[in-house]
Each structure stands twice: as C-alpha cells, then as structure tokens.
Design goal:
CATH topology: Rossmann fold
Number of strands: 10
Strand content: 5-15%
CATH superfamily: P-loop containing nucleotide triphosphate hydrolases
CATH architecture: 3-Layer(aba) Sandwich
Shape: elongated
Structural class: alpha/beta
Number of domains: 1
Strand order of the largest sheet: 5-6-4-7-3-8-9-10
C-alpha cells in the first residue's frame, strides 16, 4: 500500500532521507475505505483525523470521521455543538468537488447497548440493560472503550456497504496508554465474555443444581458469603444472558480484525518530534507489520521549522554575545538567542526524524510544522490538511 502512495523527499535537513507520504494520493484512491490514525496520547491524532477527513471531503469523498477524544475538540473545530453516537453533518465543507463530511463521537455505553438491542428480544434486552454487572461492564471494564471503538467502526462499515452512505471512514483511536490497545481489546473482552472459568464457576445459572459438582457448590457458597445472595444472582443472570446474546463476541471481534487487515484499510501513525513519541511510533510500525496491518505512513506533528537561509545557531549566538557586550539591554541580542534556541531545536528534531528513517527506511512520512495557536475551526483544519498534502 505504501509503495504506490509515496514520493521521495527529504525527511531531515541532513542525513537520511525517506519517502514522503503522499496524503492526497491516499485520500483520492477509491480503494481506500478506512483510515485509522493511531499514536500515543497528546500527539495530535484527533486534529490529524479531522484534517484528513475534511481534506478528503473537499476532494470529493463522502466521509465520516469517528473520534474517541474525551476533550471534544473535534466538535468545536468542526462547528458542531455536540457530537454523539449518531453521525452529524459538518457544515462549511467546500462544495465544489461534491464531497460530504459527517462526524461522530464514540458513546461507549450506547454502542454496547446497540449490540444488546440488535441481538436480543426486547424483554431479554431490558433484563440485560438493567443488570448492574452489565452496567459496570459497559461503562468501565478495561478494554471496553477500545472494543466498542472497533464495534462502531464495524457498524459504520456495514452501513456504508449496505446503504452506500460513505466511501471513506476515518478513525481516531482511543487515548489508551498504549495506542494499539484497540487491536488487542476485542480478543481480551471476547475472551472474558466467553471465558470457560466464568461459565464453569457460574454453571448453576444455566443448569439444574443437581448437576453441580461438590467443588462448584463450595465455590458458589463461598461467593454467596462474600458477595451476598442478590449480588451472586445478578452475576449469574448476567452470565446467563451473555450465553444467549454474546455467544458470537469472538466472531464479531475476528471480523473487525480482518477488516483492519483488509487492503482497503490504511493505518497512519501519528507522532510528535520527541524521543518518547518517536520510540512509540517505532513500536506501532513494528507491531502493525507483525499483525499484517496495512501501514500508509507516519505523520510527525508540531515540527519546529526555520526559514531557508536563516542565520545558523552558532552565528546567532556569537552575534548576540557581541551585542550584549556593547549594550546589556539589547533587545536584538535577546531575539538572536531565541532564534539560536529555535534553530537548535529544529536541528535536534531533524536528527530524531533521520534516526527513525534510518531504522524504518520504507515508512513514508509527512511533517506538519507547528502552528502559532490551537486548531479550533474548519479554516485551521484546512490549513493542517494543506500541510499534510505537502503545500
């Protein structure tokens, strides 16, 4: 996927060069149906996702962007008062190319509820939705957010295939400590729900008590003393409901996983020009490769930039020192010192990117310079999209 979407360009001011990510070719390719933006927290995944989605829409694609960002900055930047689990149209998209953009924010519990309602009778669904263990699981169980992000992606993809609503889905992955948790979460959660231990321990919820072994009886008695009879009954009712409703959890997870591996999916790893963030990006690249996930490339956000032909750091510092000797209050000397610090920062970041390129020479990269302020509207997203497109 990467090979036919890259163009050769400099990654750093010196040293190793790498292919440049051709974002517009990626967005224009009708074979690209899903773009997944992943990266560690605070590197600009949400802004990148929104900018890619807006740019694709203004180039003629019919796009929905799914965000899992708790800060809700995406809604603000797109002029939507509030995002929820239902895709909402984004107003102000340039209409010339005939594209369209909708945006939605993952509501973890609502997505889980939709799974229940789609798989159970109304009476059974009500029993599950009101069960305290289900409420806890759907709201706060470790991995539920990541699983439901993939569940929502599957829903959007099925809707797009069935109704032709979208030809591109852009996904902003959850802000987990490890941003690839969403790859593991479906298997973790489905293993929990299908786990043999839970089913064996709670066998009385599904069969005659006379079939219980003495060991199971001891376990149940001990749990009753610890949890109380009502709590245990709630737990047994919950697991019994899982038998009838969630028997296909692992199959659903496997279908979503296969969707992520499909040729129409493209992963974009997002990083900041910092040692920790680029180390995380290396891990993401290697993990995606090991899992045979199609990698489009790397986006390095908020990179420092210095105009071509600008004064070098050493020359700026020596000039500042001379001016400060002549005039201790020299404003120009202070500005030259700031310039020298900025040049050195840009050089340091360039070395970090070159080091990444040396370790992963085939990973196409786009570098987005730092902006003066936060992105808070469509104009800002459009500007980021222009930078992603190499303009």
């Amino acid at each position: 996927m990467t090979a036919n979407r890259t163009r050769v360009g400099p990654l750093a001011s010196s040293g190793r060069t790498a292919p440049a990510l051709d974002v517009d070719a990626l967005l224009d390719d009708p074979g690209t149906g899903i773009i997944v933006c992943c990266g560690s927290g605070g590197v600009g995944k949400t802004t990148t996702s929104a900018a890619l989605a807006l740019r694709a829409a203004e180039r003629g694609r019919t796009v929905v962007v799914l965000t899992i960002d708790p800060a809700r900055r995406l809604a603000q930047s797109m002029g939507i008062e509030a995002l929820d689990n239902t895709p909402r149209p984004v107003l102000g998209v340039a209409p010339a190319a005939g594209g369209r953009l909708d945006a939605t924010m993952l509501d973890m519990k609502r997505t889980f509820d939709e799974v229940v309602e789609s798989q159970a009778t109304p009476e059974k669904a009500r029993q599950i939705l009101e069960n305290p263990f289900y409420i806890a699981l759907s709201s706060s169980f470790a991995g539920t957010q990541e699983y439901m992000a993939m569940e929502k992606l599957g829903q959007l993809h099925q809707q797009a295939q069935r109704e032709g609503t979208y030809d591109l889905i852009v996904v902003d992955t959850p802000p987990s400590r490890s941003a690839l948790d969403f790859l593991d979460a479906p298997e973790r959660l489905s293993s929990f729900l299908d786990g043999r231990f839970i089913r064996l321990m709670l066998a009385p919820a599904r069969g005659p008590a006379r079939l219980m072994t003495a060991g199971l009886g001891l376990i149940t008695n001990a749990l009753t003393k610890i949890l109380g009879g009502q709590v245990l009954r709630d737990l047994q009712t919950f697991v019994s409901a899982l038998d009838t409703v969630f028997g296909g959890f692992r199959q659903r997870a496997q279908r979503t996983y296969a969707l992520l591996q499909a040729p129409g999916t493209a992963f974009v790893v997002v990083a900041a020009p910092e040692p920790d963030a680029l180390r995380e990006a290396e891990y993401f690249v290697e993990r995606l490769g090991a899992d045979r996930m199609p990698l489009a490339g790397l986006v390095v956000n908020r990179a420092s930039r210095v105009p071509d032909g600008a004064l070098g750091a050493d020359e700026a510092m020596s000039t500042a020192t001379r001016l400060r000797r002549e005039d201790p209050d020299s404003v120009t000397a202070g500005l030259l010192r700031l310039h020298a610090d900025r040049v050195r920062l840009a050089e340091r970041e360039a070395r970090l990117r070159a080091r990444f390129a040396a370790a992963h020479p085939d990973v196409a990269t786009a570098v987005v310079p730092a902006l003066a302020g936060d992105v808070h509207d469509l104009a800002g997203l459009r500007r980021v999209g222009d930078m992603l497109g190499g303009r």
